[in-house]
Design goal:
359 residues; alpha+beta; 21% strand; single chain; five-stranded antiparallel sheet
Length: 359
């Protein structure tokens, strides 16, 4: 059978360029060779039901984006199968008979692009970054029978000021978290009480992080499921018959309540990678507590410092007194010198007076 399949593949490739091709397999059965021939029309007739499915993905893509064949500027064919003339004719007919472009190598373009994109994501290669935007082809919903929508109540007037301050503080954290994850809108509840949320909408840019938050949960051990959103226009992926993807159970909320008297904000975090695979990364409870503590800080003074302080003070006082005594003694000495000088002058005057009287 392996020999037969290899020859069928070769014959198909030959028919892409010729209207007829030989078909031969050596020693096909019990040492006997098989030889035959086939024409292109016969080959196309054998694959009759297949050609009806060729244009299906193309028409689906146009309908999802609400476009017509006239809105498409160019169509580039990639892949080895795009060389088949009948396939090209079916695609051209689905686009209103327009011309199909084949500027790129049908085989190498896909492989080269995949290799460059993989190298761009890897940290082992140095490659110039190039832009590429991938989207989620099929939506995924979040469903739970245990969770319910919280009651919406108006805040009292006394708590309005406190609420505004808390909102201002939370804005900074929200801006920082926005770069890492995207919060899911408020959950919607169905008529049966089941919580349903379009967790990953079809057409969302990848990769992406999503989060579902609940305030003050009291239930413990709640479960939820991730499902394909079969109700959307995209439906289920090809080959998938059931929408269920995975189911999870989250526990530990009662432990948080026993420790902090509340569960705070319970956050379920999800991540979707470039392959559009959705992962449930973590579940956490964040509780904010305000604690006010009065602390009295005593600064000890070493004993050596207190003992040394007294002699220093006395020495300083003694120095001041000595300086005062020295200044007073200096003043007395100056006054004495002045008095002596005055006495000497008076004596000289008396002696001069005596001399004048003798003469």
């Amino acid at each position: 059978m392996a020999k037969l399949r290899r020859q069928v593949r070769r014959t198909k490739e030959v028919l892409s360029a010729n209207t007829g091709a030989p078909f031969s397999v050596e020693e096909l059965h019990e040492g006997k060779d098989f030889q035959s021939s086939i024409k292109r029309k016969e080959f196309e007739a054998l694959a009759g039901p297949y050609w009806k499915r060729v244009a299906g993905p193309l028409t689906t893509l146009l309908s999802r984006n609400k476009l017509s064949a006239k809105d498409v500027d160019a169509v580039e064919l990639l892949g080895g199968g795009s060389r088949v003339p009948k396939l090209q004719a079916e695609l051209s007919a689905a686009l209103g008979g327009r011309h199909l472009d084949r500027h790129l190598d049908a085989d190498e373009a896909v492989v080269l692009g995949a290799g460059l994109f993989a190298a761009n994501l890897s940290s082992s290669f140095r490659l110039r970054k190039f832009g590429m935007t991938d989207i989620a082809s099929f939506g995924v919903s979040f469903e739970s029978n245990d969770l319910h929508l919280p009651a919406v109540t108006a805040a009292p007037a006394k708590d309005a000021a406190a609420g505004s301050k808390a909102a201002k503080k939370s804005k900074k954290g929200m801006k920082a978290a926005a770069a890492e994850e995207e919060a899911v809108e408020p959950l919607a509840s169905s008529k049966s009480g089941q919580v349903v949320k379009n967790l990953l909408p079809a057409g969302k840019k990848l990769p992406i992080k999503r989060a579902i938050k609940y305030n003050n949960l009291t239930i413990d051990g709640f479960s939820f499921e991730l499902r394909y959103n079969a109700s959307s226009v995209h439906g289920l992926p090809p080959g998938v018959e059931r929408p269920e993807l995975a189911s999870y159970t989250v526990a530990g909320i009662q432990d948080a309540i026993k420790r902090y008297n509340q569960s705070g904000v319970t956050t379920l975090r999800f991540e979707a990678d470039y392959s559009s695979l959705l992962h449930f990364s973590s579940a956490e409870c964040v509780v904010e507590l305000e604690v006010i503590e009065d602390k009295v800080i005593e600064v000890p003074v070493p004993a050596n410092d207190t003992d040394a302080a007294a002699p220093k003070a006395t020495d300083a006082a003694a120095g001041k007194d000595a300086a005062k005594d020295a200044a007073a003694a200096a003043d007395k000495a100056v006054n004495a010198e002045k008095m002596e000088a005055a006495g000497d002058g008076a004596a000289k005057d008396e002696q001069q007076g005596d001399k004048k009287q003798g003469d």
